[in-house]
Amino acid sequence: MEPTKKIWMDGKMVDWEKANVHVLTHGLHYGGGVFEGIRVYETAKGQAIFRLRDHMIRFYDSAKVIELKIPYSLDKLCEAVKEVVRVNGPKVDYIRPIAYYGTGAVGLNPIRLPTKVAIACMFMGPYLGDDQQRNGARLITSSWEKPSNRAAALNAKICGNYINSVLARLEAVRKGADEALMLDSVGNVAEGTGENLFMVKNGRISTPGMASGILGGITRDSILQLAPDLGFGVTERNITRSELFVADEVFLTGTAAEVLPVREIDDRPIGGGKPGPISLKIQRAFSEVTKGKNKKYAHWLDYLK
Ligand code: PPE
Fold it and tell me: Per 3-state DSSP, what percentage of the chain is helix, strand, and coil (rounded to 5)?
């Protein structure tokens, strides 16, 4: 990762190399923090942030789940996000806000700890690679399942939740795949380690519902709204692993991954082993929206200028 100039930290712009945290930070020891990932797109009217307010609302919701009090208003943080991108210039395509319990005492109870907030941005490019974005990703089903809804708060983007994803991603990479497919605690399809999942069968699109322990993705929500414009309904329902093996198409969605076709799962080609027509249509439509070429969704873009 290339360093940028500044990171917003607790109300101030700090030099990239000085944006450090204390080793006794609760968020570091126990994962007591929440974060967001937000894309910045280049459009005809300059840089625009995609669904900024919706991402920041989820940020506050995630914080609420772990009782982390963010000492700034939503408007103030949305403005800070824009300011970070302005300060760091045109090469930036991804923003990472994070809020976490700071330092004060060692121990799980975070109640008296200060809240720390930072907003960084960077250049990310295609999440899993250029070839994957164009020709499709190869997945393996992870041997690590997602925790149950009794064991974790999976609708919240909590730092500590991600160790499960890290284990799965390590396994996928070690086995030569691009990404891991996570099953939920009863064995149904949940999502990728950092993406939601959709499948297409006989022209019908389905995606797992929230009860499968998924993160309620902003990209997922965008596709739920966009797909009907293209003539496709989307059903939220339980999906089994072997349904994916006989699906016509599978694709992943996420801020980092955008719309990412899947060409293989567990060494089995999906559909023709290449991105299917509906995945490509949705990928193209989503890309038009993010580049400001679809008037209907113009309100999803926050221009910097
Ligand atoms: N599920 C998970 C577990 C997840 O982390 C993400 C985002 C999604 C679904 C898709 O949500 P949304 O971005 O709102 O459409 N993953 C973020 C983190 C990626 C990373 O490697 O870090 C992201 O895409 O920014």
Answer: 35, 30, 40
Domain ranges of the chain: 6-122, 130-290
**What CATH number has the domain spanning 130-290?**
3.20.10.10
Backbone angles phi, psi at 45, to 5 degrees: -100, 25
Q: Active site includes 116?
A: no
How many whole angstroms from 222 Cα to the centroid of ligand 1?
14
> What is the per-residue pLDDT across 191-244, written as a single tens digit (0 to 9) for each?
999 999 999 999 999 999 999 999 999 999 999 999 999 999 999 999 999 999
Q: Is the CB of 97 under 6 A from ligand 1?
A: no
pTM of the model: 0.98
Instruction: Please tell me if the CB atom of residue 258 comes closer than 6 angstroms to any atom of ligand 1.
Output: no
Residue nearest to atom 10 of ligand 1 (CA): 254
CA of 87 to the centre of ligand 1 (A): 25
Q: At what angle do helices 277-290 and 218-226 cross, to 10 degrees?
A: 110
Do 256 and 127 touch, CB atoms closer than 8 A?
yes
Q: Which helix (DSSP H) or strand (DSSP E) does residue 140 occupy?
A: strand 137-141
Q: What angle do CA 24, 30, 36 make, to 5 degrees?
A: 100
> Which backbone phi and psi does 98 adopt, to 5 degrees?
-145, 140
Enumerate residues 6+ apart whose C-beta is below 8 A from 75. Answer: none
Give the distance from CA 67 to its chain's centroid. Answer: 22
> CA of 204: how far to CAs of 73, 199, 279, in Å?
41, 8, 12
Token pair 């824009």 is found at 82
Atom of ligand 1 nearest to the CA of 182: 3
Residue 1 has pLDDT above 90, yes or no: no
User: Of the residues 6, 45, 157, 201, which is catalytic?
Assistant: 157
Domain 6-122 belongs to what topology?
A: D-amino Acid Aminotransferase; Chain A, domain 1 (3.30.470)
Distance 36 CA to ligand 1 centre (A): 8
Residue 110 CB less than 6 A away from ligand 1: no
The answer to whether the 6-122 and 130-290 domains have the same CATH topology is no
